[in-house]
Design a protein that fits this description.
Elements: H1 2-12, H2 15-44, H3 51-58, H4 60-92, H5 96-107, H6 114-125, H7 130-137, H8 150-173, H9 178-186, H10 191-219, H11 223-228, H12 236-247, H13 250-274
Length: about 280
């Protein structure tokens, strides 16, 4: 009996499917079923119709929030690139011990939750925080409002998402063959010309990987914009939570979530056709 079962499994090669079964069951219960439920709710609450999608796609408020979400995500991505590229370059061209120390500092942020880091920024940027106290010490009495602004939420999101950009670019930089750089130098490439025509194109996959990852994550950010941002400049995740928590409008919230999911799927599809999702982590 045991030998026949073994021959059957070898013949049909079912072991990979058996190994994937626990993950498949988990994804089915905790991802596919809730997602289908949200999709059904978006067209059945409060009644069976597409009125929720019509309001999301044509309403001025929702269009403004979606636009603000995309602009914020794009700006955060650019800021993460501006911070992450030089730091990744420093890591890739430092001594191994120095690079490992910087890498440790970067990865330490993953050990702390989004919520804790967000509350830390609330303390730092609050009216009684150290930054306001420093401004007052140097003679600035009319201190600006830092907390609950676009500035505070953007700063916190850059701090939270920058490690994703750094790790992606660093992984690509470490794979660059030094012989390519030496060959370019032997042909007369120097300074900015060497960076622009040789080094930057070689690191472009890392830039693309990090940018897509940061942009997509930022689209669905909820905790940080809600706690630190201005109520007048909501992002779509915050508006979805507001619709459900305050108005119990599950249909509208579900419709906005499905539209956001569709847009994210389109972005990832474009990226997959150009680079491949298997390269998303470098």
């Amino acid at each position: 009996m045991g030998s026949s079962l073994s021959r059957l499994t070898e013949k049909t090669n079912v072991w990979p499917w058996l190994l994937l079964a626990p993950l498949g069951i988990y994804m089915l219960i905790f991802f596919v079923v809730p997602l289908v439920d949200v999709a059904i709710m978006s067209v059945t609450d409060p009644r069976l119709s597409l009125v929720n999608y019509e309001r999301v796609l044509t309403g001025a408020l929702y269009q403004r929030v979606f636009l603000n979400t995309f602009l914020t995500a794009a700006f955060v991505t650019v800021c993460c690139l501006a911070v992450g590229y030089p730091l990744a370059y420093l890591m890739a061209h430092s001594k191994p011990r120095t690079a490992m120390f910087i890498l440790l500092l970067v990865t330490m942020s993953f050990w702390t939750s989004f919520l804790v880091r967000t509350y830390s920024w609330m303390v730092l940027l609050g009216n009684n925080g150290p930054l306001i106290a420093l401004l007052q010490m140097i003679g600035i009495d009319d201190t600006p409002q830092l907390l609950f602004t676009r500035f505070s939420s953007t700063l916190a999101m850059v701090h939270i998402l920058a490690p994703y950009m750094i790790m992606n670019i660093f992984s690509v930089m470490k794979k660059i063959d030094p012989a390519l750089i030496r060959s370019a130098e032997s042909l007369g490439a120097r300074g900015w010309s060497l960076f622009r025509h040789v080094y930057l194109p070689l690191t472009a996959p890392g830039i693309a990987n990090g940018s897509v990852l940061v942009f997509v994550i930022c689209l669905g950010f909820y905790v940080t914009p809600v706690l630190l941002g201005s109520p007048r400049e909501q992002m779509i995740a915050g508006l979805i939570g507001h619709q459900i928590d305050e108005f119990l409008a599950f249909g509208m919230g579900s419709a906005m979530a499905m539209v956001l999911l569709f847009i994210t799927f389109v972005i990832l599809t474009i990226y997959h056709r150009r680079f491949g999702l298997d390269k998303l982590w470098g």
